[in-house]
């Protein structure tokens, strides 16, 4: 018998901001989570409801677990979902904007780099990011030629070391940019996190999922 066979609903999410801001939504739905993933280091966390458990994943892996049905539900930022959908169109239901983990996707450069002049002069910019699709779409819409350099984290380092002229990254408080002598020069889009749902789970076990989905909808309004 599989270990998961008695669990009715698996919810995938990432630790950090998304976990912290999901907890109040779960509490409003009457579900308590005793352990914090930062402290316990556990990757599967039980809740006060024996039928609901959480998987703690890297943010970019959440859509994959939900797409393949290893999790019924997930919570992921619009940034992650747009990049995932570019490779796997229509692979997930994305029914509810939870209005949590709000931030912006922005272009940022070193303080002394004249971005507007570079764009005006038609310079070919090197842009470091992990958001390939959104970066390509943004600069294509502006008619700016860019060489995109794919990175997986610590994007702020790239302009400092001369790997790139600009970065496209998430900005929340702005502290990481300013700590590294960078400034945001263009906002690409507002980001928040959405509830995502495995299509087969919804079809086959919608009666189990819908009460929790409705609770998320109520709590996020
Ligand atoms: C994001 C982003 C920035 C930072 C911005 O990283 O990549 O580094 O947050 O936040 P701030 O404006 O509040 O300083 P995150 O901590 O989510 O980790 P990641 O590098 O794994 O994306």
Brief summary of the model shown:
The chain has 221 residues and is α/β, with parallel strands linked by helices. It has helices at 17-28, 37-40, 62-67, 78-87, 115-120, 132-142, 157-161, 175-179, 199-220; strands at 9-14, 44-46, 52-57, 73-77, 93-110, 125-129, 146-150, 166-171, 182-197. The protein is elongated, with a radius of gyration of 19 Å.
Give a written overview of the molecule.
With 221 residues, the protein is of the alpha/beta class. The protein folds into 2 domains: 4-101 and 192-220, 3-Layer(aba) Sandwich (D-Maltodextrin-Binding Protein, domain 2); 103-191, 3-Layer(aba) Sandwich (D-Maltodextrin-Binding Protein, domain 2), CATH 3.40.190.10. 37% of the residues lie in helices and 32% in strands. The chain is built from 9 helices and 9 strands. The radius of gyration is 19 Å and the shape is elongated. 1-O-pyrophosphono-5-O-phosphono-alpha-D-ribofuranose binds at residues 153, 169-176.
Let me know the CATH homologous superfamily of the largest domain. Answer: Periplasmic binding protein-like II
Count of discrete alpha- or pi-helical segments spanning 4 or more residues: 9
Distance between the termini: 40 Å
Beta-strand proportion: 25-35%
What helical percentage do the residues reach? 25-40%
Number of domains: 2
Return the string of H and E elements.
EHHEEHEHEHEHEHEHEH
Fill in the CATH topology of the largest domain.
D-Maltodextrin-Binding Protein, domain 2
**Radius of gyration, rounded?**
19 Å
Oligomer: single chain
Structural class: alpha/beta
Shape: elongated
Outline the biggest β-sheet.
Answer: 9 strands, mixed
Mean pLDDT: 95
The name of the CATH architecture of the largest domain is 3-Layer(aba) Sandwich
Give the strand line-up of the largest sheet. Answer: 2-3-1-4-9-5-8-6-7
CATH class of the largest domain: Alpha Beta
Domain ATP phosphoribosyltransferase catalytic: 58-217
Catalytic activity: 1-(5-phospho-beta-D-ribosyl)-ATP + diphosphate = 5-phospho-alpha-D-ribose 1-diphosphate + ATP
Family: Belongs to the ATP phosphoribosyltransferase family. Short subfamily.
Subunit structure: Heteromultimer composed of HisG and HisZ subunits.
